[in-house]
Design a protein that fits this description.
With about 325 residues, the protein is mainly alpha-helical. It contains 14 helices and four strands.
Length: about 325
């Protein structure tokens, strides 16, 4: 097997997942913040700030999931049975979120049920993603190349903590996005919310950073052996620096900087998790080479992705550029 093909595909899937977390994270976060106001015009403004982007952001989830199925079919066959419940919960919640986004506008003035569906669907989807993340970090029971655990192995205090952390993190992304994209009462309230959410996210990041090496010797060895520690110490320091910059910029009149540094926190945390687990795609025992598809399959699909990925990136950049600028209170959704 060409050793580099699984590495390339792991990088592509990891990039797709990271882009999904960042891009869909802020519109899920806006819905998580929905109960903070009952003013209909302000809720309209919050939804209008993501109206051109939210469905396109989910493209990266499809690319990540599809890439896992094609490039690492053995991993897909193990991971899916291990997380059937949270995956189904996440997908149903995303469906409710999407339906609520469209139906809320046509159901006015009797749209309270869709407000609830928008908030609840987004919050449950974020929490389910955290459960899956926590379950993967803990590891999956595998025997003879198949999932050999129980249906609720993923449900532990650690995974629940990860779920809560993802909800708080997405809410922070949503709050800093509103600071950047809106004005008036919505932006000012989001600035105040972001300060509290930042403290919550950093607390969860510290807790995960302490819990994982304590509970999993393989992660402790990766980070705290002398050679690795000398190489990896900038990551937690950079994360702390980005957190400080978000805090500092929120206390000024900056609009884009808090959002940009929040994205940097997510990217650094994602890289930290990748460093902790590489090369294991199904922790703690199966590497990317153990679960990879045939080289011919990798090459065939890689040719298609080499054309598709630039198109997605161009489309994404074009939409964000086209709908740049502030969303005002009276902006409309069509």
């Amino acid at each position: 097997m060409e050793w580099y093909l699984p590495v390339i595909w792991a990088g592509l899937i990891g990039t797709a997942v990271m882009l999904y977390v960042v891009l869909d994270g802020f519109d899920l976060g806006i819905a998580i913040l929905f109960p903070a106001t009952k003013d209909e015009a302000e809720r309209d403004q919050m939804m209008n700030s993501v109206a051109p982007f939210w469905d396109g952001n989910e493209t990266w989830l499809v690319l990540g999931g599809g890439g896992l199925w094609v490039a690492f079919p053995k991993a897909y066959a193990i991971i899916m049975p291990a997380f059937y419940i949270p995956v189904i919960l996440m997908l149903l919640a995303l469906i409710f979120r999407g339906v609520a986004f469209e139906f809320r506008w046509v159901a006015k003035p009797k749209h309270r049920i869709w407000d609830l569906a928008f908030w609840l669907g987004s919050t449950i989807a974020a929490f389910a993603q955290g459960l899956i993340l926590g379950g993967l970090i803990q590891g999956i029971t595998v025997a003879n190349g198949q999932f050999a655990g129980k249906p609720l192995d993923w449900l532990t205090p650690f995974s629940v903590m990860c779920g809560a952390g993802v909800v708080v993190g997405y809410a922070l992304l949503g709050a800093t996005w509103l600071v950047y994209k809106t004005e008036g009462a919505v932006a000012e309230r989001a600035r105040a919310q972001a300060k509290l959410l930042l403290l919550g996210l950093m607390a969860f990041a510290i807790l995960v950073s302490l819990w994982t090496p304590y509970a999993h010797p393989r992660i402790a060895e990766r980070w705290f052996t002398p050679a690795n520690f000398a190489l990896l110490w900038p990551f937690p320091l950079l994360t702390a620096y980005c957190g400080w910059m978000v805090w500092k910029r929120l206390h000024g009149q900056h609009e884009f900087a808090p959002f940009a540094f929040t994205i940097a926190i997510f990217v650094l945390c994602f890289l930290g998790l990748a460093i902790s687990n590489y090369p294991y795609l199904v922790p703690p025992g199966l590497t990317i080479w153990d679960v990879a598809a045939a080289p011919a399959s990798h090459i065939f699909v890689l040719i298609g992705v080499s054309f598709l990925l630039p198109m997605i990136l161009f489309y994404t950049a074009f939409v964000y550029w086209t709908f740049r600028g502030k969303v005002k209170l009276d902006s409309g959704y069509h």
